Amino acid sequence: MWFKERNGKKISFSNVGDDEMLQNDFYLSLRLDKWGASGSRWKDAKVKGGSAINSQMYENIDLDYEGSYESDGREKGKYLRIASNYLDILTVDKRAMYIMALEIATAIDGKISEDDKKTWLTIEEFKKKHQDILSLTFDEANEMSLEEIQTIDAIDDPIWEELDKKREEYIQIHGERVYEDEEDE
């Protein structure tokens, strides 16, 4: 998402779980090592209003199904979801998230929603909408992010409260999941 290779080396990956688990509980979490892969300047980057550990320097981009174990299976659905830890996302990570959305939508001939499934964009519409970010090279996006990190507030609890609120709203609309062992009682 950020790049296919860096300094002449292909990017490696690993997974945890057996084939069945990966089929049933698919979850992918990606993070750019801003200190290693992005250059030593990140070590000196000043974070506004907090520690680097609570900032977008440690951004994860997650891909899972709506019914994944992260939501305790309470969310019903067959849609893939891409989420970030923060509302304010650094340009380098935003670019990666857009590339991930495009790669997945292209692979499954799908559409992309950015407003909780109210509207859907075709792949071409999404590309056009985000052309300003997608046209950047990794190095350009990284440079912009080195500036942005100095102006975005570091926060202790990213968006967990907002996610919990949305889950509760979803459950009110669609109902609580009934587990098999609960039916026996």
Measured as a percent range, the helix fraction is 25-40%
- What general form does the structure show? globular
Mean pLDDT: 72
Number of domains: 1
Which regions have little confidence, pLDDT < 50, spanning 5+ residues?
A: none
Radius of gyration: 18 Å
> Helical stretch count?
7
* Separation of the first and last Cα atoms: 47 Å
Structural category = alpha+beta
Strand order of the largest sheet: 3-4-5
What is the ordering of alpha helices and beta strands?
A: EEHEEEHHHHHH
Kindly state the number of beta strands.
5
Biggest sheet features: 3 strands, antiparallel
How much of the residues is beta strand, in percent? 5-15%
Short description:
With 185 residues, the protein is of the alpha+beta class.
Descriptive account of the structure:
- The chain is an alpha+beta fold and 185 residues long.
- The chain has one domain (20-173).
- The chain contains seven helices and five strands; from the N terminus they run E-E-H-E-E-E-H-H-H-H-H-H.
- The chain has helices spanning 19-24, 91-108, 123-129, 131-134, 138-148, 160-174, 180-183; strands spanning 5-6, 9-10, 27-30, 61-65, 80-84.
- The strands form two sheets. It has a three-stranded antiparallel sheet with strand order 3-4-5, covered by helices on one side. The chain has a two-stranded antiparallel sheet with strand order 1-2.
- It is globular.
- The N and C termini lie far apart (47 Å).
